[in-house]
Amino acid sequence: MNTIETDRAGEDKAIRAALFRFVLLIALLILAFRRDVISILMTACEFSDWSHALVLPIVVLAYLRFRGSELRELEMSPSAWGLLLVLGGLFVWFAAMTLGLFAYLRVLAFWTAIGGVVLLAAGRSVLRLCIPPLLMVATCLPLEERSMDRFTIPIQVISVRTAATVVDRLVGDEVWTDGGEMLRRTAGENSRVGRGEHRFGFRMSQAGALIGLLVVFSRKRPVWQLVILAISFGPLLFCVNVARIIVWSMSAWSRGNSVVDVVPQNLSAGASILMTFLVFGIVVWLLDKVSCLGGLFYVEEEETDDEANYEKPPSHTEASR
Amino acid sequence: MTGRSFGNKWFIGGAVVLALAAVFMQSAAEATSRALRKRSIPIRRHLRDLDIGALSDFRFIEDMNAGTDVVAGTEEFIEWRFSPTVKQFAGVETISLQAYYYSTEGRPPIIPHTPEVCYRLLGDHVSSINATTIDVDLGDGSGFGVPAKSLRLTQNPKNEPRDCCVLYTFCVNGEFLGDRELARLKIAMPWNRAVYFVKIETVASVPSNGDFQMAFEAARNILAGAIPEMVAKHLPKSADIEAAAARDVSESARAQE
Q1: Are strands A181-186 and A174-178 parallel, antiparallel or unpaired?
Q2: Rounded to the nearest 5 degrees, what angle is found at the Cα of A44, between the Cα atoms of A249 and A126?
Q3: Dihedral of the CA atoms B196, A152, B127, B87 (nearest 10)?
Q4: Is B81 helix (H, G, I), strand (E, B) or coil?
Q5: pTM, 2 dp
Q6: Domain ranges, residue A181
Q7: Residue A54 CB coordination number (10 Å)
Q8: Of A88, A78, A79, A144, nearest to A111 (Cα)?
Q9: In this complex, do B5 and A24 lie within 8 Å of one another by their Cβ atoms?
Q10: How far apart are CA B151 and CA B130, in angstroms?
């Protein structure tokens, strides 16, 4: 066996060991947080706008498939900080559970403990690569509705207002907003869409964030691209949400202005998923084009043929044989 | 997979911690929650019996929720509308006084939405949110400052817009707090075995071209009149809180049933 094969076998062993550690720890973590895991699964099964949580394992596996080669090159050694994160997560969960304090702290504790498990199983370098999957997990953790409302209502009010401005120009009738609702006056009658819609909008944005994260992190990107994408991530999701409200209102009005009709809502949800793929796809494609055209920015160091064919010299023992 | 890679002490430590958590954490949390059950504290006097005479600068117009048993998750509430009687507040169209009392057995009482959240959903535009203090005179020469939150919002922005001043504060076990999260923290603390809280809110409106400062002063005035009255005659005193906290859990559970 030559040295390269020996190294690869060693790397494979390290990866298998880290994988074993991760599977064991994550199984124990799920058992420890079983109440929250069951709650997440029940929510995903019960509410269609949370169902993106069910495809999370596929999305994370897809990410690992795209970035697997980088993962193989990383050093894998358990880190003491992981134990600290796990302990912190368990403590916060226990405190939030027993005191009945801030339900979202329990979710946050679970998420922190997952990060701790990654650190414990494979170390800091792997955690860095696992930040996107951790963010993907965060998009699937249900927030308590009361906590969610505090920031979703103001955003939704702005989204509906923006959408109403566009629809007003498109339909020709008078269109205006009343809080989180959009109203239209046709033939002297007022009709509305968007009742209690801010939570649906937020959940669709979370699903959009999951897609966006996969599109953005499907390959290694230079820092300047990540900075631009991090700044534009929220505004892009906001634009998709506005477009979704436009689709919803237009289809609701075309179907007789019923606010309880589920077809426009489902149609807008489907359109939102497609639009998220498109928007993020176009943005990363544009950024890649800028990189290529400009030639000013360093994208990724390509492995040269010389490096690829480089073989380590035989060790002293092998040479003497 | 070498023994060395699995024998890492941190990994083993983590596995042991998680295994212990998997076995004991849920049941330990349930047992601790049971031990920390909150006891309810009955209000001394119904809020609907509040003496309107204490609000001498305002005339009672209507009970906005007459005939309704439960509002915002509580049976103990008032939602009254007033109009000013003094020249000082002549520009104020209407002013409301709302108070909601909560004290539950078992889990800590949940604080409902605050105005900056729910008024937005109703279509109002929130222009500013500030912390303020209301000086309250207890009548015997003593007084205290009540921390509160003030909002400036525009109602009916499309038709007949009105400028509104919303002032609200929380009182948790006798302590006034101007922030919802602080109130939640105070309620959740394990040493507060018996908990009540009351949310006191007022909304004063002026026409869009009116004097907002007048609305703000009117709101301060009505709270400064209502709060001492509530503290003196309605809200539980320290002795009531201690008595409720000392009550046996099983007794309070029976009382709840």
Answers
A1: antiparallel
A2: 110
A3: -40
A4: strand
A5: 0.75
A6: 144-294
A7: 13
A8: A88
A9: no
A10: 6
CB nearest B6 (choices: A17, A80, A157): A17
* Interatomic CA distance for residues A321 and A303, integer angstroms: 32
Residue B185 and residue B115 in one domain: yes
pLDDT for A275 beyond 50: yes
Closest CA to B78 of B60, B90, B92: B60
Q: What is the DSSP string of A173-188?
A: SEEEEETTEEEEEETT
Question: What ipTM does this complex have?
Answer: 0.74
Query: Do A162 and A274 sit in the same domain of this protein?
Result: yes
Angle at B167 between CA B165 and CA B173, to 5 degrees: 170
Name the residue among A101, A121, A179 with its Cβ closest to that of B121.
A179
Poorest-pLDDT segment among B1-5, B85-89, B237-241: B1-5
Shortest Cα–Cα distance, A66 to chain B (Å): 25
Phi-psi map region of A61: left, alpha, beta (phi>0 left; psi -120 to 50 alpha): alpha
> HSE of B61 in the Cβ direction (CA atoms, 13 Å)?
15
Same domain membership, residue B91 and residue B53: yes
Helix (H) or strand (E) holding B127: strand B125-137
Both A157 and A283 in a single domain?
yes
Structure tokens at B169: 């504060």
The verdict on A137 and A149 lying in the same domain is: no
Q: Spell out a b/e string for A116-148, using b for 16 or more CB atoms within 10 Å of the CB, else e.
A: bbbbbbbbebbbebbebbbbbbbbbbbbeeeeb
**What pLDDT is stored for residue A308 in this prediction?**
46
